[in-house]
Specification:
Chain lengths: 409, 336, 514, 347
């Protein structure tokens, strides 16, 4: 009886999937009539980012037809590598079909992932990457966040001025890559002086403190290159009590975008680019993984690039509703905290998602999973230590894609 | 019993404590018990719990912590605290990843580097604590910070390349039976047994229990401390080395989690922070317990959000039980 | 002074090369002078007694001889060779071994390990061989008649007496040229064991420095003895030619005379202030005594007879096993010092440094500690009132006001003791329980302390005082209870209250043997 | 302390109290330490002028003070515990908890502050008291008790928030760090707070008994002090001050993360120890700890403006801590005096 119903539900589920996907009939016949056991492994760093990414995945897993198809378990391991490695191993022995994870180390988890692959467990990492070739990594990292924002700053400064660099976590590969990317641009301009360089730990609170210190020492700063937690930079500038604000580049916190949208702050000199790490990368990774798992897509590439968000100050538009309709890309502060990462959904990649998905992990009422565009997968360039072990980074790794150098050294 | 009672029947033979008292008094007993319980739960809740591969994984994952805890124990036995463990593990981790060579010889070279670096840091700590009377906890904090600085100079992002020999052979099973990790652990333990049976070993316990009396009895207290810190450094070095093999990479802040975990393991192992009581074996088992606990919490499906609570409770429980048994086993002693 | 030196040098003038010759040793710690000028010598095969009150400098001499303390000035020669040990091992190597009063045994090691320290017996591969160590230890133990102690036993489970035996045996077993024994019989109920050993080794020409409060022992063992007082060697005497009283006089010195103040000899019966009945606990077997209002009762006894635990039970430190404690007529249960204090007991412990004063704090803070609550409102201490209280109290115990602002650790032992007693009085105690209140303090301070105690009782308080100095008790107290083997051996008061009488009682036999 | 019988205690600096002359020398050693630390901080800032014209500006000092205020608050509780001869490793989680609760409860209308702050302080104090009970009654080593408490609290916070702290910033709290005259109000508050801290330690009977208990637990027991109550109260204070730091942090950064307190654990210990407080307890004053906190903050500010690799910055940071430790050793003065006076054996 039970078996029968489950069979029926699966049949129904598959039918819908097939309908939506419009893919070949054989594929559904082949797919086994069972729930996929999927583990979401987060290495808790404790900032809102972690929760929002996982919420998107939970929301998608609860969106028909995946709600019938997916048995999702979330596992949080501490901030040390062994803990997460042990978690992977436990998941494999618990019979996971797939693991989608935010890896804490780009290299430290390779063994555990390798073992998982050998047991035919599909491993997807989102946002952060690993160098183990058998894993699929979905990330924006390689999309040129640092060089583009840095170049934008240089253009803005006409090639001369004092700049702060707000870095992430010392000794982290992404931090190094962002730094190298930014410096690859700044070095070209001898008139650009890096007067302070500090670690904001990718959270608003530390960023604000470190920025405040730097501002006190260098009130004459002309621009600030920021990373995640950049709303702290704006907060620090406002708290420092100087009239004059300076251009800031950063990632996608709602506080930052609202500040960019704020008219009188703009008048005081605030300007900037909101770019970098999109929450939605986890949703995209999950959908991609499901399509590969259900056999509806063969993913050939290991490292998949997520398109770099790029929102200049004048493009910031506060949404009235709970979705990004007619080009709005930020939410009123009554709806989300400043540290909320806004880039939560993409009309093309994840139309199923809404604000509540990101905030509470709940599916959007009435929404059903939409298939990803057929040729969506974009291979990411190799970056040694980030997404491949022994490899050469392409010479044009830090090429400019969003802006072009308008000033010349 | 009081002085006069014993004085009056002072010719009644005095034999060593009954075995059960000694067993109870020894903190290791408690940790073994806890370990047993956890293993049973684990075996009951996870089908392949006792399979060779799972066991090897657990041993591999807990070995670095076990080694670090073994080192920390030596310092705790002298009534000291050594926070430098975090720095030294990171440091040796990147040193091995960057300078370690290929094949068995390369691994050996890496181990040598790690041990040397650890010993050096340990020597600095030990000298300043023993001969300059600096507060161990504060000094080693400074050493830790400096070490992590040096680490960042050597490697400013995860990297280095670790030979396949280390990555795979060193974490495999010898002849498909005995996990290398187990072999390493046993070797370290045997080494400790040997050291315990030297004048330094006896002096270590004497120093920790009562420094004044130890001096009166002619124990070279300062040298004993110095050596303790050096050997601790060596253990941290080995921990960093094995961590490199386990993670097959050098990570500049790999040691940070160990800072507090080490002391958790030591406490679980029944070593007294008042010095002079406990041993390395307990601490290594304590480390194993912490790893196994994670596994059990997973297999029993405890919501990951609350794992911390369980770890903390287990720690406290272990110490309380140890304190209690210690009292039981030492009841009726004359305190002169 | 000069003649004292003369005699000592005269004594050491002729004869075979001395085992030990000490000349003009001095040692001071910061402000506190431990030893001023000490000179004496020991001949081969001699058991030389070192006599003096607590704090006279005996233990410092022991530390100097065992290489723990390096003297500031003075010379030592051992077997005619210069002797300046840098550490305990050097002393041992030179042939001096010591059985310490504060035993140097490690509780967490086995008897065998302790005996072998710092070098254990090695087996194959140069590792410590437990078997061999225990074998050696066992033979040693049986050789010295302690065969009943298994060498594998942890020292922490030995009785105090056994520990003392082990400590002595370890020192003797090293076959030293000079054996230093600091209060070796303190915990031994039957010292003949030790005496036999001493006979054996002195026959072999070993010199022994023997420190003990028990004159009867000293007389039995030693031909000569050197008397210390306030860190100076007063005289080296041949014990045969001098009576106990004479020795005591030398030890106590002028103190005996100038504080020979009038003692309230009137023996009227007083209402009880506090007392104990059939009290047992710790090393106390069964003690019954009572202290009247306005009365000073002394307690005498050889070391380790139970007096310590008696006092500590009254202070709420040692748990009571049986019997009862009465204070102001009410039966009380003193399970902690706090309760004892609430009950009106003011306790002065024997170990001033470890249990009495707070070395890190200023003298005035030390004194006001128990009454801080009364010195202000809402837990805030009123500086003015505190100062007033301290000054008033300082005057009472005759403590110079310039000391009050200093850390108490910088004060001499005498002044520390004054401050400590001042604190106890301040706390508003009605009953003083003083354990050796004049231990290691100079003559002047002693006089002050006596006076303080006297006017305390004069104002209706009561006091129970233990002292190792019989002379002191005799002229301070109204009556004196003598403790022996954890029980009351007897009591002396009025004309009966004399040293021979007390010595006799303390030695456990009713009639004087001197 | 076990050394005492061998070295005959430490007359140490105490002796200079009556012999040495000059106002500075006559000050209490701990006060001297604190002043020395302030001096070092000022010297650092002055020296940093070479880095840029705006170094050493009043604005910079204000900023440094504001930022160091959080560390100061945590360090206060930490120091109370260390004075006792203990250690509180739960401050990090406690601080986070304070921040998270504040975010949830105090955020929004300012009226919430009225009940929210006391409520949170009460909770954190109670949790601290639990550690105190474990340490004093159950006799669990402070290191382990507070470590475990920290781990547990982190788990609780994680579960309580399900990963994301939710709530609103509090205008009232943010006002403390007012935008324009940045620091000025805080400045006064801080001076007052430091004074209050020292007052609590020096002038209240609680503080006095705390020192007594720290210097000599045995004597404290024999003297009949309420040892258990003192211990528990002290850990409660530590918990509350960590909680307060968390609340303040919400005011500063209008939002909280679950890593709020992590970066304050070791600095809190470092600030206290550098401030001349002995880890074995009984000596040191809050003025020193506060100075230590300011020094550490100043140091990191200046270091982050040095154009050198992060590695070198960290090394410099650690090295300065080390130097401070050596310079402020308890018995340094004594050692110098000895090595000058005679070839006496060193303790």
């Amino acid at each position: 009886m039970k078996f029968r119903t489950s069979l029926k539900t699966c049949a129904f589920a598959l039918a819908t999937v097939a309908m939506l996907a419009g893919s070949a009939v054989q594929s559904q016949a082949q797919t086994p009539p069972k729930k996929y056991k999927i583990y979401l492994s987060m290495s808790y760093s404790g900032n809102g980012y972690q929760t929002e990414t996982s919420n998107l995945i939970k929301a998608l897993a609860a969106t028909p037809p995946y709600d019938k198809l997916v048995d999702l378990k979330t596992v949080i391991s501490g901030t040390d590598v062994q803990a997460q490695a042990a978690a992977y191993q436990s998941m494999v022995s618990a019979g996971a079909d797939a693991i989608i994870t935010f890896p804490i180390s780009s290299t430290g988890l390779n063994r555990a992932i390798h073992e998982a692959c050998e047991k035919h467990v599909l491993v997807y990492t989102y946002s952060a990457t690993v160098t183990e070739p058998c894993a699929r990594t979905v990330s924006y990292i390689t999309a040129g966040f640092a060089p583009n924002t840095a170049q934008w700053l240089v253009n803005k400064l006409n090639g001369k001025g004092n700049v702060f660099i707000d870095r992430g976590v010392a000794g982290n590969s992404v931090d190094k890559m962002n730094y190298d990317g930014a410096m690859s641009v700044f070095r070209k301009y001898p008139a650009i002086k890096i007067v302070a360089e500090y670690y904001g730990m990718w959270n608003s609170q530390t960023t604000q403190q470190e920025t405040a210190k730097a501002l006190a020492a260098h009130p004459d700063v002309d621009a600030i290159f920021g990373e995640n937690g950049e709303d702290g930079i704006v907060a620090a500038m406002l708290a420092s009590g100087q009239k004059k604000l300076v251009p800031v580049t950063g990632e996608n916190t709602n506080g930052f975008r609202l500040a960019l949208a704020n008219a009188d702050l703009r008048k005081r000199g605030l300007d900037g680019i909101s770019s970098g790490d999109p929450i939605n990368v986890s949703g995209y990774a999950f959908k991609l993984m499901m399509e590969e798992l259900t056999g509806k897509r063969k993913v050939a590439v290991h490292n998949i690039e997520y398109p770099l968000p790029w929102v200049p100050a004048d493009k910031v538009k506060v949404c009235t509703g709970d979705t990004f309709v007619n080009g709005c890309n930020a939410f009123p502060s009554t709806k989300v905290p400043d540290s909320f990462n806004t880039e939560v959904f993409d009309p093309v990649l994840t139309p199923e998602l809404s604000l509540n998905s990101a905030l509470h992990g709940t599916p959007t009422p009435g929404a059903t999973i939409q298939p990803l565009p057929a040729n969506v997968v974009k291979a990411a360039p190799d970056v040694p230590g980030v997404n491949c072990q022994h490899c050469q980074a392409p010479a044009d790794l830090f090429k400019l894609t969003k802006v072009s150098a308008t000033v010349h050294p | 019993m009081n002085t006069f009672a014993s004085a009056s029947n002072s010719n009644a033979p005095l034999r060593p404590d009954a075995w059960y008292r000694r067993v109870l008094g020894d903190g290791t007993t408690i940790i073994v018990a806890i370990l047993a319980v956890l293993t049973v739960i684990f075996a009951a809740t996870q089908s392949d719990a006792l399979s060779a591969s799972v066991l090897t994984d657990i041993l591999n994952n807990s070995l670095p912590l076990a080694l670090a805890a073994a080192g920390g124990t030596l310092v705790v036995l002298t009534r000291g605290f050594d926070l430098s463990v975090a720095g030294v593990v990171s440091l040796t981790n990147v040193l091995v990843a960057v300078h370690g060579g290929d094949g068995p010889l390369g691994a050996l070279e890496g181990a040598a580097i790690a041990v040397a670096a650890g010993a050096l840091v340990g020597a600095i700590n030990g000298y300043l604590v023993a001969y300059w009377n600096l507060q161990s906890i504060a000094l080693t904090l400074a050493t830790m910070i400096v070490c992590s600085g040096v680490t960042l100079l050597i490697l400013d992002a995860p990297g280095g390349n670790v030979s396949d020999f280390m990555t795979y052979t060193m974490t495999d099973r010898l002849g498909k039976i005995v996990p290398v990790a187990l072999v390493v652990a046993v070797c370290v333990y045997l080494l400790w047994r040997a050291l315990r049976r030297t004048d330094w070993g006896v002096g270590l316990y004497a120093t920790g229990a009562d420094e004044t009396a130890a001096v009166l009895a002619g124990v070279p207290v300062k040298r004993v401390k110095l050596i303790a810190y050096i050997l601790a450094g060596v253990c941290y070095g080995l921990a960093g080395f094995m961590l490199t093999a386990l993670t097959s990479t050098g990570t500049p802040n790999a040691g940070e989690p160990y800072l507090l975990l080490v002391f958790a393991a030591i406490a679980l192992g029944g070593t007294s922070f008042a010095g002079g009581r406990g041993g390395v074996a307990g601490s290594m088992l304590g480390a194993l317990t912490l790893t196994l606990l994670q596994k059990v919490l997973f297999s029993t499906g405890v919501s990951s959000f609350y794992t911390g609570i369980f770890q903390g409770v287990v720690m406290i429980a272990a110490v309380v039980v140890a304190v209690f048994f210690a009292r039981v086993s030492t009841r009726g002693e004359v305190h002169a | 002074m000069a003649d004292a030196l003369a005699t000592s040098t005269a004594a050491s003038g002729a004869g075979a090369p001395k085992i030990l010759d000490i000349q003009g040793i001095a040692k001071s710690y910061g402000a506190t002078v431990a030893v001023r000028r000490v000179s004496f010598d020991i001949e081969p095969g001699e058991i030389h007694a070192l006599l003096g009150e607590n704090g006279a400098g005996k233990s410092t001499i022991v530390k100097v001889l065992s290489g723990i303390v390096i003297p500031d000035t003075g010379t030592l020669t051992l077997d005619g060779r210069d002797y300046a040990p840098a550490d305990p091992m050097a002393a041992r190597a030179a042939g001096v071994s010591t059985a310490f009063q504060e035993l140097s045994l490690l509780p967490n090691l086995s008897v065998a390990e302790n005996l072998m320290l710092p070098r254990q017996a090695k087996g194959k591969a140069g590792l410590v061989s437990v078997a061999q160590s225990e074998a050696r230890a066992a033979s040693m133990l049986s050789e010295y008649g302690l065969g009943h102690i298994h060498p594998g036993v942890y020292v922490r489970s030995l009785s105090l007496a056994e520990k003392q035996r082990i400590e002595i045996m370890r020192a003797v077993a090293r076959q030293p040229r000079l054996l230093v024994l600091d209060e070796p019989t303190a915990a031994l109920s039957d010292p003949t064991w030790l005496f036999d050993i001493l006979e054996r080794i002195t026959a072999a020409g070993t010199g022994v420095l023997y420190i003990s409060h028990r004159l009867s022992e000293v007389r039995r063992l030693c031909r000569r003895g050197t008397v210390l007082r306030n860190g100076e060697s007063i005289e080296t005497v041949s014990l045969a030619g001098i009576a106990d009283a004479g020795i005591f006089k030398m030890m106590v010195g002028s103190a005996a005379r100038d504080t020979q103040a009038t003692r309230s000899t009137a023996k009227q019966t007083r209402p009880e202030a506090f007392g104990v009945t059939n009290l047992s606990g710790g090393t106390v077997a069964d003690i019954t005594l009572s202290v009247g209002k306005g009365e000073i009762v002394g307690v005498a006894g050889l070391e380790g007879q139970g007096q310590r635990d008696l006092f500590r039970m009254l202070a709420g430190l040692t748990p009571v096993r049986g019997g009862q404690i009465r204070i102001d007529g009410k039966t009380v249960n003193l399970s902690s010092p706090a309760e004892a204090a609430r009950a009106g007991i003011g306790f002065v412990p024997e170990e001033r440094k470890t249990e009495g004063v707070f070395l890190g704090l200023r003298t005035d803070s030390n004194m006001t500690l128990p009454i801080l609550g009364r010195l202000g409102r809402f837990g805030v201490v009123n500086g003015a009132r505190e100062k007033a209280a301290v000054d008033q109290q300082a005057g009472r115990v005759d403590l110079a006001s310039r000391y009050l602002k200093l850390k108490i650790g910088a004060l001499s032992g005498g002044n520390q003791q004054k401050a400590l007693i001042g604190r106890v009085l301040m706390s508003g105690a009605r009953h003083l329980v003083l354990f050796d209140p004049t231990r290691g303090v100079d003559v002047g301070t002693k006089a002050v302390i006596y006076d303080v105690i006297r006017d305390f009782v004069a104002q209706g308080g009561s006091a129970l005082v233990y002292s190792t100095e019989l002379a002191e008790l005799i002229h301070l107290v109204d009556r004196c209870v003598v403790i022996y083997h954890g029980t009351v051996a007897g009591e002396a008061s009025g004309p009966d209250l004399s040293e021979p009488r007390l010595v006799a009682l303390a030695a456990g036999h009713g009639v004087s043997d001197s | 302390m076990t050394q005492a019988p061998l070295t005959g205690g430490r007359p140490a600096d105490t002796r200079s109290g009556d012999t040495a002359s000059g106002l500075f020398a006559r000050l209490d050693r701990d006060v001297r330490t604190a002043i020395a630390l302030f001096a070092i901080s000022v010297a650092l800032i002055a020296a940093s002028r070479v880095l840029g014209p705006n170094f050493g500006s009043l604005a910079q000092m204000k900023a440094i003070l504001v930022i160091s205020s959080f560390l100061m608050v945590v360090a206060f509780g930490q120091q109370m515990v260390i004075l006792l001869g203990g250690l509180d490793l739960s401050v990090a989680s406690m601080m986070t908890l304070g921040g998270v609760l504040a975010f949830k409860w105090i955020g929004g209308p300012d009226s919430n502050v009225v009940w929210g702050v006391p409520a949170i302080l009460a909770i954190t104090a109670a949790l601290g008291a639990c550690s105190g009970i474990g340490v004093s009654l159950v006799k669990i080593p402070p290191f382990i008790m507070t470590l475990a408490m920290g781990v547990i609290l982190y788990g609780v916070t994680l579960g309580f928030t399900q990963g994301t702290p939710t709530g609103q910033p509090s205008a009232a709290l943010s006002a403390l760090f007012g935008s324009t005259a940045a620091g000025v109000p805080v400045l006064y508050l801080m001076v007052a707070a430091i004074a209050a801290g020292c007052f609590l330690q020096m002038r209240t009977s609680f503080g006095r008994k705390l020192y007594a208990l720290g210097t000599n637990p045995t004597a404290a027991y024999v003297a009949g002090l309420p040892v258990h109550r003192l211990t528990i109260a002290t850990y409660a204070i530590s918990g509350a001050s960590a909680g307060l730091a968390g609340i303040l942090m919400l005011g500063y950064v209008r939002g909280v993360t679950l890593t709020l307190g992590q970066s304050y654990l070791l600095p809190s210990v470092a600030a206290v120890v550098i401030g001349g407080t002995s880890i074995v307890g009984g000596r040191g004053i809050y003025l020193g700890a506060a100075a230590g906190a300011i020094l550490l903050t100043t140091l990191s500010t200046i270091v982050s403006s040095l154009g050198i690799a992060e590695g070198w910055r960290t090394i410099i940071y650690g090295a300065v801590i080390f130097v401070a430790l050596v310079l402020l050793r308890d018995d340094l003065a004594l050692l110098i005096r000895r090595s000058r006076s005679s070839s006496r054996k060193q303790p």
